[in-house]
Amino acid sequence: xxxxxxxxxxxxxxxxxxxxxxxxxxxxxxxxxxxxxxxxxxxxxxxxxxxxxxxxxxxxxxxxxxxxxxxxxxxxxxxxxxxxxxxxxxxxxxxxxxxxxxxxxxxxxxxxxxxxxxxxxxxxxxxxxxxxxxxxxxxxxxxxxxxxxxxxxxxxxxxxxxxxxxxxxxxxxxxxxxxxxxxxxxxxxxxxxxxxxxxxxxxxxxxxxxxxxxxxxxxxxxxxxxxxxxxxxxxxxxxxxxxxxxxxxxxxxxxxxxxxxxxxxxxxxxxxxxxxxxxxxxxxxxxxxxxxxxxxxxxxxxxxxxxxxxxxxxxxxxxxxxxxxxxxxxxxxxxxxxxxxxxxxxxxxxxxxxxxxxxxxxxxxxxxxxxxxxxxxxxxxxxxxxx
Amino acid sequence: xxxxxxxxxxxxxxxxxxxxxxxxxxxxxxxxxxxxxxxxxxxxxxxxxxxxxxxxxxxxxxxxxxxxxxxxxxxxxxxxxxxxxxxxxxxxxxxxxxxxxxxxxxxxxxxxxxxxxxxxxxxxxxxxxxxxxxxxxxxxxxxxxxxxxxxxxxxxxxxxxxxxxxxxxxxxxxxxxxxxxxxxxxxxxxxxxxxxxxxxxxxxxxxxxxxxxxxxxxxxxxxxxxxxxxxxxxxxxxxxxxxxxxxxxxxxxxxxxxxxxxxxxxxxxxxxxxxxxxxxxxxxxxxxxxxxxxxx
Lengths: 387, 296
Hints:
- The structure holds 2 protein chains of 2 kinds.
- Chain A is built from 14 helices and 17 strands.
- By secondary structure, chain A is of the alpha/beta class.
- Chain A has 2 domains: 2-245, Rossmann fold (3-Layer(aba) Sandwich), CATH 3.40.50; 253-380, Rossmann fold (3-Layer(aba) Sandwich), CATH 3.40.50.920.
- In chain A, the strands form 3 sheets. Chain A has a 7-stranded mixed sheet with strand order 3-2-4-5-7-6-14, with helices on both faces.
- The model of chain A has no long low-confidence stretch (mean pLDDT 97).
- Chain B has a single domain (24-293), classed as Thiamin diphosphate (ThDP)-binding fold, Pyr/PP domains (Rossmann fold, 3-Layer(aba) Sandwich).
- Helices cover 36% and strands 17% of the residues of chain B.
- Chain B contains 11 helices and 10 strands.
- Chain B has an 8-stranded mixed sheet with strand order 4-1-5-6-8-7-9-10, with helices on both faces.
- In chain B, a hairpin with a 2-residue loop joins strand 9 (239-242) and strand 10 (245-248).
- The longest helix of chain B is centred in the last third of the chain and has 21 residues, at 273-293.
- Chain B is globular, with a radius of gyration of 18 Å.
- Chain B starts with 23 loop residues before the first helix and ends with a helix.
- The A-B interface holds A 22-23, 25, 51, 53-57, 59-61, 63-73, 75, 89-90, 93, 199-201, 204-212, 215 and B 38-39, 41, 43, 50-51, 53-57, 59-69, 71-72, 74-87, 89, 91-92, 109-110, 112-113, 116-117.
C-alpha cells in the first residue's frame, strides 16, 4: 500500500484503476469531473487498460455502459445531479437488465435554482431505481467502495448495479491522506467479472425484452430479491476486504456511542464526522448522545437501524434532502423501519445543507437540544418557522 | 452486386414475430440480418420492431439482439462494440435498427455522438414516416402533408406542415465513412448497401424507406409497390455518401406521377392540388441540387 494525499474524486479514481473496468463511458459534470479526468489520464499513460468513451450525454454514458455490460465486461460511469436525473431512464433499465455497472455520483443540488454544491436530493430521488446505494464519508471509504462495489454488484446472487455517493465538494474536492492498495492486493480481492447474462456468439441471446402482465412482476420480484441478497454479500465482501487490506467496515450502518445513547442522530455522508464530535462534546456534559451513519440506503438497513436505536429516548434524522410536501426521504425510510420493528421513540426530521449550505457545529448541538425537548416533526435548519 | 436472391442466406434470423401484415420495417430487418449473418449483434430501441420481436418468452431473433432505450440505440451499440472488442471477439457486426422517430428525433443525439467517435457500427434507420408503434403520430421524418394522429387534416391545417428532416445529409455532414439511402422496394440495392457497409471500418448509416400499410393507409399487398414508387416519382432517392462525396445511384430520366403515389395513400387523400404542386416543386428543387452537385 502507498499513502497518498488525495481528494475524494481522486481516491475514487484510484479505486477504479484498481478495479480495472474495461469500458468507461462518462460525460463531465461538476463536481464529478475530476474522477473522469484522472481516469482519462490513467488510460492515456497506460496504467489503466480500458476503453474510455467520450459520450455526448449522461443518458448515453449509462446506455453505453449497459451495452458494454451486456457483453459481459466490467463497466464504469460517473455523474452528478442534473446528469443523474438526465440518465434516470437508464438507471431503471440497468437494474432491470441486471447489469452490475458501478457508478460514482457526486452528490449535488438539483436545479432550480441552479447550484453546483452538495446535497443529496439527486441520488435520494432515485432510491426506487433498483440500484444499490452507498454513501461514503471520507476519501478512504470512497476508494474502498470503488473496489467493494464491484465485488458486491457482480456477485452471481446479486447482479445489481451499484451507485457510490460522495458529498459534492465536501468529499469530492477535499484532500485527505489515503491508503492506496497495490494492484496485487486488489486482484486478490476482486475476482474477474463472469456472467451468463451476456450477448454470446456461441449461444445467442435476446436481452432487455418485454414481459407482459403475467411475467413482468416475476422479473420485478427477482430484481428485489437480488438486491436483498446483497446484504450477506456485503458482509462477505467486508470480511475479505479486511483480511487483505486491514480495514474492517461495518455493513449497512456505522454506529458511534449508540449502545447506551438516549439521543441519537441518524445521518449519512460526510456530516457524520462533525456529528460524532458533537456527540463527544455532549457526553462530556453528561448528555448521552450517539450517532448512526447510514452507509447503504439500498438495501435499506431496517433491522440494523431499529436495533441500534431501540433504547433511545429521541431520534433525529439529519439529511440533505426534502421530498416537497412531505419530509426528507431518509426520515420516511427510517420511520418505516422503526415502526416495523416496534421502536416507538419520537423521531424528528432535520433538513439541512441544501444547495451546499453549511451545517455548523452549533446547528448540530441545536438538533440534540431540540430533540431532548421535543420539536416539530420536520425542521429546516436555520429557518425557525416552518413556512 | 454480390447479394441477390440466389446468394442470399436462406437462414432466417428474425421470424415468429407479430409485425402487422405488409410491414416494411420487419422486411428491412429480416433482409439486413440475412446479409450480416449469425454474428450480427442487433440493437433495437423501443419501437415497432422491438415491440413485435421481444415478447418474453417469444423472442424472435436467432442472432444476439437487445432492446435499447428509445434514445439509446447508438450509445448502446457503442458499448456493445467496445465490449465485444474487449472480449477479443473480432468476427461480429454491431448493427442498430431504429425507426424514424428513434433516429431523427429522440435518438439523433446519440447517433451524432457515435458518428463523431467513428464507432465501428452500422446504424439502419427503417423509416415508416411516423411513430407507428404508438399509433401513427408525427415524427421528424413525416413528410409534408401527411395526416397522422397528431397532425390531423382539417379545414385549417392539411396534415403535417413541415418537410422530412434530411437525415442522410445530416449524417453525411459528420463526414461519416459511409451513408446510404435505400428502400425495401429495391431490395437488392438495400442489401448490397448493407453488405458494403459491413466491410467498411467506422460508422455506417443506412436510411431505408419501409412503408407501413397501417399508418400509410395502403393495402398490405402494396408495401413493395409504394416503396418503389416513392423512388420512381422522385420523392426519395437512392444515393450514397463515401469519401466526402455524394453519389446518386439511380437517376430516373422521367419521374412517375407524384399525385398518383400520394393519392393511393389514405394519409394524403385530403391534399389539394395546390398542396401536391408544393410537393412537386420541392421535389424538383431537390433534384436540381442533386443533379448539379452529386456524382452519378
